[in-house]
Please model this.
Amino acid sequence: MPNPAPIFKELKCYENDRMLPGCLLEKEVCCSRVSTGLQLVLKLLSKGGAMETGTIVETLKKCELFNHLAEDELHSIAQMGKIEVYHPGDELFQQGSVGAKLYILSQGHISLYRKMHLGKSRKGTIHVYDAREGPRRRLLGGWAALIGERHVQMCTARCDSPSKVVSIPTGQLRLFMEKDLEIRVKILEKLVLLLRDRLESSYSAMETL
Model:
């Protein structure tokens, strides 16, 4: 987003209808410039916010939990989200922490790791999943909070490259779902199906051990 700071660099203002020390502009000229500057800043902020909302909506469309929702429903959820930027090695969350957000990869590469006990005081770390850019994006984070349960992260999510993710506070999304029965049913039905698929994948992985 363009930096609005230079707009105000040369502007002076009045305080209690009195010129502040150092102001070289007549009152009417000063106030006119300030008004113009504020309008430009608001326009820039509005444009930047619209661009971010559009990016969030496009990411939601690729997410397994939201890709069946209508356009207006996606826009409502997008208003709750924001884009977070991470560097290689940064962690979105750690195994054992309490999850209060949902994460969806927008750009980059994120890996999930899980620490395990291997017996006789031995511990190891296994690679669980790779989240990469693609037509379908996996939901990461505290999904259990959507049904009012405390969500303890089962894995650590670590960035393998510069990454951007859409984050949505689960508490805020849950309140939104409680006010709209139709969207609540849509999201929870899809969540049940996703959990079923993940359980089946887990059992298939165990059978190959």
Summary: The domain at 67-207 is CATH 2.60.120.10 (Jelly Rolls). Residues 4-22 have pLDDT under 50 and may be disordered.
